[in-house]
Amino acid sequence: MVKSKSEAPKYGEPISHKQAVKNLVEFWRKNSKFPCSYNYYIQFNEAFIRKQRLRDGNRTEMGHEYDFVAFKTEDVMDTQILKEYGFIEIDGEKHDKKNQKINDAVAEDFIHDLYPKAFFIRLKKAELIGEFANIYMAKHLYNVF
After folding, report:
1. pTM, whole model, 2 decimals?
2. Which of 4, 28, 86, 92 has the smallest number of Cβ neighbours within 10 A?
3. Domain region containing 87
């Protein structure tokens, strides 16, 4: 029996993280010409899994859900398709822990391998939900709009 809320198992992302993603998406859609999505899951390909030796440890997840992805339109054989243009990850308190830093590095390496021309930015959750969130986002995203 759980005596207090702090002893209960925790599942899913915190409300503050959801709010940070929501703020980012709203800001992006208001200020950028590029379409976007959020909570964007990508399965790592087998070559990357082998290169990173991900099956050697106790890792069960062979992919990553990126907080935010921006797309741009490209013409391919007279058809316009959306291509991944850039990725944004939101870092909160747990990102200071060793295991999370390792997971973050793997997720970032995958983007650099698969999408070498895409931008990859890490933003601080506290700043995205703070009083000056719009100023923070403008400062860090100005070059990618």
Report:
1. 0.85
2. 4
3. 14-144
